[in-house]
């Protein structure tokens, strides 16, 4: 006894809103695709105003130190400098809470 399998083709309706090929948006998208294919650079986003205060601030970023100055005479900065000196000389620097020493009592037999 042979089983016959029928090939069925399912046709699904397109989902979403139908596209109007004559719309202004579709014309703009087609133009952009055409320009992109030809290698022309497409302008995107808001243009940068080179003379703005923000652009001047961004240009200085990394060149000028921002924030508060470090007080090298403070106790914390002296402690950090001492730790860095120990690290540079190869001495092991222990940080944080010291390890708790456990005492084990051996019961007499």
Short description:
The chain is an all-alpha fold and 109 residues long. The chain contains three helices and no strands.
Describe the structure.
With 109 residues, this protein is an all-alpha fold. It is built from three helices and no strands. It has helices spanning 24-38, 53-60, 75-89.
Helix content: 25-40%
What's the overall average pLDDT, rounded? 86
User: From the helix content, strand content and strand pairing, which structural class follows?
Assistant: mainly alpha
Total strand segments: 0
What kind of sheet is the major sheet?
Answer: none
Radius of gyration: 36 Å
- What form results from the Cα inertia axes? flat
End-to-end distance: 85 Å
Order of helices and strands: HHH
Amount of beta strand? under 5%
Low-confidence stretches: none
What's the total helix number? 3
Observed structural traits:
single chain, 109 residues, mainly alpha, flat
Lay out the secondary structure.
Blueprint: H1 24-38, H2 53-60, H3 75-89
